[in-house]
Design brief:
The protein is an alpha/beta fold and 438 residues long. The protein is built from 12 helices and 17 strands. The radius of gyration is 27 Å and the shape is globular. 32% of the residues are buried. Bound molecules: manganese (II) ion.
Length: 438
């Protein structure tokens, strides 16, 4: 428990991504702005409103302000107008640099550095691994900032040349460990300490970020973050809210994004974290924001006698009022003419925006091979043989395919001549890579 030091009130938000998801919005004729920009802004505004109403002693932003490092001026201005409200009432604020904020892998600056350049009072830009000691109205707090790391942040090119992604990841973890250790050791044990980091932790349950940062990501072990010297670990990057350390010693929390960036976040609650902090004590709470709902309608009408009716029925089911809607439906090519698109548009009128995605069921995938009725047992080799017999274009390959299938089913490993670099040197897992399919 904390000594006599006062409780600090802290607001932790992350992954604002202001300017994202415009394809899910429409132009507001009154403002000329995309409605999704307005949605994201209203979420951000609610966060700032809360910070000011309390007022909090500190605001932590976990990174990813915009979709990229060069947002349009009007988007940047809208972001600045909100954060400026914190500066106006002298609430200390740390803006951490996330992967989407960095320009060309960190070598070209970042979208947030302007706040340091302009010396906005009380604002700190977290673009380095360093500990900041902040004197708030209710006492001091230490915040160790760990921005998004790229291979060039900690490693020289010569060190990583020729290494696989996994090996670079390992090397990065090894290099980071003593750097973090050095920072943690010099923390004042009497003062509440926070780690503010933009990273992918290995326990994280991924949301949209998986798609937004394809292949660029490093993963750090969560054990690196669970340290008794820290009272709270404030994360950014993963869009799904979660606490990676349910023991709460310390809490390791992603607040998640403040609005839905895309449909992968359809089912996730969006919000921010409100925290009461003292040395050795962190009481935190996830505060949901009233965001616009997303709704996927998925229906297969390919077997329906009246595909149009079935489709309309599916659309009528959920509450579509003001939601971002997508309709995914399957139909046969010979049903295309019976679908009346005008009626679909009418049925979807209440939605804020919607898209309709018809998908033709593949005739190939429909086993209309008479020999393969349900009465037959499904011996895989027999099925394959029947399939091959019905496909003249595979005649030349048929014998080889049947042969390979038989060997695979017998548990043999087949070398198809695909190159799997030095797999023999990697023992058990390496051998497996020789494509044992089943
Ligand atoms: Mn990120």
């Amino acid at each position: 428990m904390g000594k006599t030091s006062q409780m600090l009130k802290i607001l932790h938000l992350s992954d604002i991504h202001l300017g994202s998801g415009f394809n899910h919005g429409r132009i507001n004729p009154e403002t000329g702005l995309n409605s999704r920009l307005e949605d994201f802004l209203s979420s951000l505004e609610r966060c700032i409103d809360r910070a000011i109403a309390e007022p909090v002693d500190l605001v932590l932003f976990g990174g990813d302000a915009f979709p990229d490092a060069t947002p349009a001026p009007y988007v940047q201005k809208a972001f600045a107008a909100q954060f400026r409200r914190l500066a106006d009432v002298q609430i200390p604020t740390i803006l951490l640099v996330g992967n989407h904020d960095q320009h060309s892998q960190g070598n070209g600056g970042d979208s947030l550095s302007i706040y340091r350049t302009l010396a906005v009072p009380g604002f700190i830009v977290g673009d380095r691994i360093v500990t900041h000691r902040i004197e708030t109205t209710n006492g001091p707090v230490q915040v160790l900032t760990l921005p998004w790391l790229t291979r060039s942040t900690l490693l020289t090119r010569s060190k990583t040349e020729g290494l696989s992604m996994a090996e670079v990841n390992e090397l990065l973890t090894q290099t980071l460990t003593p750097v973090l250790e050095a920072e943690i050791r010099q923390l004042d044990p009497e003062v509440p300490a926070i780690l503010l980091a933009h990273l992918m932790a290995d326990r994280a349950n991924l949301g949209a970020e998986r798609f937004l940062a394809v292949g660029k990501g490093f993963t750090l072990p969560v054990s690196l973050l669970i340290r008794p010297e820290l009272d709270y670990v404030a994360l950014g990057h993963v869009h799904k809210h979660q606490n990676l350390n349910p023991d709460n010693n310390p809490p390791v929390v992603y607040p998640g994004s403040i609005e839905r960036v895309d449909f992968s976040e359809e089912k996730e609650a969006k919000g921010y974290v409100f925290l009461n902090l003292a040395k050795g004590q962190a009481d935190w709470e996830f505060c949901p924001l009233p965001t616009r709902s997303f709704c996927t309608i998925k229906v297969d009408v390919s077997e329906a006698d009246d595909p149009q009716a079935k489709l309309l029925k599916a659309i009528a089911k959920p509450k579509l009022q003001d939601a971002v809607v997508r309709v995914l439906y399957k139909l046969r090519s010979d049903q295309i003419d019976v679908i009346e698109n005008a009626a679909l548009h009418t049925a979807l009128k209440a939605a804020h925006s919607y898209t309709i995605h018809p998908e033709l069921v593949s005739q190939l995938a429909r086993p209309r091979v008479p020999e393969l009725g349900v009465a037959h047992g499904l011996d895989p080799l027999e099925v394959l043989q029947t399939y091959l017999n019905n496909h003249d274009e595979l005649k030349e390959l048929a014998t080889d395919m049947a042969d390979a299938a038989e060997r695979l089913l017998a548990g043999e490993t087949i070398d198809f001549g695909l190159k799997t670099s030095e797999s023999s040197a990697q023992g058990e897992t390496g051998d497996r890579k020789q494509l044992s399919l089943l």
